[in-house]
Design brief:
The protein is built from ten helices and 14 strands. The protein is of the alpha+beta class.
Amino acid sequence: MSESIDRNLALELVRVTEAAALRAGRWMGRGDKIGADQAAVDAMRSVLGTVPMDGVVVIGEGEKDEAPMLYIGERLGSAEHPRVDIAVDPVDGTRLLANGMPNSIAVLAVSERGTMLASPDIMYMDKIAVGAEAAGVIDIEAPVKDNLARVAAAKGRAIGDLTVVILDRPRHEGLITEVREAGARIKMITDGDVAGAVMAANPGTGIDLMVGIGGAPEAVVAACALKCLGGDMQCKLWPRNDAERAAVVEKRIDIDRVLRLDDLVASDNVFFAATGITDGELLRGVHYVGDGATTQSLVMRSRSGTIRTVDAIHQLAKLRQYAAFPFD
């Protein structure tokens, strides 16, 4: 299988995330999450169809009856090879974008066919993610203060020097108290835990680890990025309601199992691309100037370990001449 992916697909995938960001960026601060997400979906779907690959959406916008595009199981690409799994998040942080807040990004990841974890029954996971310096020292089943101590030791710092990113949710009140009592700093985010996990693994963001409960699909997308960055992640399925708890019993789902990076994406040949939509610690957002725009993207491949930051200038008038969707 690996011999069929012999080129850096990420360099082609960045065109997809750039297109999604350029379309979605027009919706910044307009208070319309649905409209912003649909704009990104339309652009991402259109450009993905031109990429020379045979892709199947494993992490997408939902089942076919819920999403007309980028639905789970949809086939995308313009060639028979390579055969790949696709994970998409056209807007990670729709509320951030709708409210004009930092760190909304367009995200896409690809790996060899059959290597991405699908979790159709349980939609949330408990997570912990760190960068390369602390890879191998975390334990999701240990108290948070122990993980903070381990990460601090691995990075040669005091716990008080660490910054932890946590989703601002009522379910995290106890976790927030534990982190504060341990002496670490906290960066609360309202949405966007893919970006949060990537920030935890990407040097220069000021974030040292991410902890807490978030979306299961987002965990797989983040795992793809962490494989490229040399980071580490552990997760456990977290049933959120009676229906999911019933599915656990009926289908004998092991919610005590610790899911590691290789469980989330079982490939050493992973491609990841993300483009900023709004300005943030991870990436600069889309800036519109006259009939042009600029974007900043993160482009990575796990096998080579190559990490690129791509600053692009787009001439929208020229893109309108041949693009399959409007660049307005």
